[in-house]
Amino acid sequence: MRNRPSEEPLRQVRPHPGDQPWNRPPHPADVDPAVLGALLHRHGWQRRGGAAGRYGRWTPPGPGGGGTSLLVPESRAFPDSDDLLGEALDALARNGTSAAREVLISLAVPSDEIRWWRDTPSGPAGAAPWSAGEHLRGAARQMLLAAALATRARAGYYGARHRRAATALLDEVLVGPAAEGRTLTAFAPVPTGRPLAVRLHQALHAAREAIDYQRATGGMDAFDGAVEAGVSRELTEALTTLVRGTEGARVAVAWAPGTQAPDGCASAAEPVEFSPGDLPVLREAAARYLREEPSVPVRVTGAVVRMRRSGPGGEGTVRLRVLAGAEVPHVRVTLDEEDYRIAGHAHLVGLPVRVHGRLERRGGFRRLTGASGVVPVQVDEGERDRLMKALQENLDFFEEACGEAYGDED
After folding, report:
1. Which one of 22, 26, 56, 270 has the lowest number of neighbouring Cβ atoms within 10 Å?
2. How far is residue 147's CA from residue 158's CA, in Å, rounded to a whole number?
3. Residue 158, CA atoms < 13 Å, CB-side half-sphere
4. What is the C-alpha to C-alpha distance for residues 57 and 88, in angstroms, rounded to an integer?
């Protein structure tokens, strides 16, 4: 097991992919008839009669759906309820449409659903350019990442901060098929993904209100308060990507049927709409967030992974793999001659270093400025052995980069 300095929080162990519930089809005994009915309605299926109080007959959305129907019991009060549910699930599995697959996903993994729509011109027979699907998925991922970042901290601009934890949160999210590059649905499992869905729901509404305020008054002040709801440069850039090249776009968050709406969130909310007329405001907000996010004072503990200076003496630049003290994977820091020498010696003996400075927003919070007080940090034998192994693999590079600093060790 890998060991780290005591300042670094432990990471959670992710389950093996084979243990994930979406690899298994839903079993009739695990399906709530009311939840199935709510999901069918959400995904456009039409109820067309059935025995009142006993079951409903549902047909799929769109033209040509009349030839297929599902008999879905309204409860488990009747002996044939499990049989009807089993037949309905089999029919959904055979249906093959996105409206059927998305229902099955939500049944297998109870999830909050996030749906995007892009209003783009249609090609022949409803076709869309190949790039449209990639564009939609890229914008959706940007937006989910912005929401995941906001679950870690509130900031107008994150840069490289919190990226590792936010990206890990996205690994739990499932995605449905994209329909001609115009619609896409993501499924955030309730136990792990609800904070992300809540943050996105609140941030979208706050962004819409801030845009409306700016367009009505010309002031950008509302974007300052919107940061607390999760609005950031990353979110405004994601919205810009989503809307650009369209006649309009919408985003909706719907809570998993059978669960209560989160505190402060409406149980059923209309999609939040954005238009090309919003783009200048979104771009101005993104620039404002980048410009006004302050640098952050930090005390970083990190392992030296690269050293460089122009001559055998004087100041040099060191790249650290961050172990603790900042939510970024790496930082670059310029050190004076003595601190540079200390960093080189610490690396030679397999020790990380601790340094004080300010994490600078320029460059995405990847640079430490005003660095001082470089000291080696003691770690346990397991971590030290791992760092020494890394040194052996890169020894030639370090000898070339550090020059006489290593010779002084003798």
Report:
1. 270
2. 11
3. 28
4. 10
